[in-house]
Amino acid sequence: xxxxxxxxxxxxxxxxxxxxxxxxxxxxxxxxxxxxxxxxxxxxxxxxxxxxxxxxxxxxxxxxxxxxxxxxxxxxxxxxxxxxxxxxxxxxxxxxxxxxxxxxxxxxxxx
Length: 111
Hints:
mainly alpha
């Protein structure tokens, strides 16, 4: 388990919601000291704490643990979904256009 990367992902999601460590810690009923240690990757967390955390951040457990789960098509698609779901429609369309351009480039390179 890569606790450092998990902590970084938690920090990213907390900042996305404009929450301080103290606010998030209070929301999920842990100390702000413990929250800081989790974000730095210095402490592990219980399943119960992880569930409260992902519920408060509005993400899934598999998204939070994606660095610890082996890559497969469904996991990769879930990661795409997690990233896209939080974006406004205009950005979603822009992302689709970028992906189309990337895959079009790969197809041209293969030929």
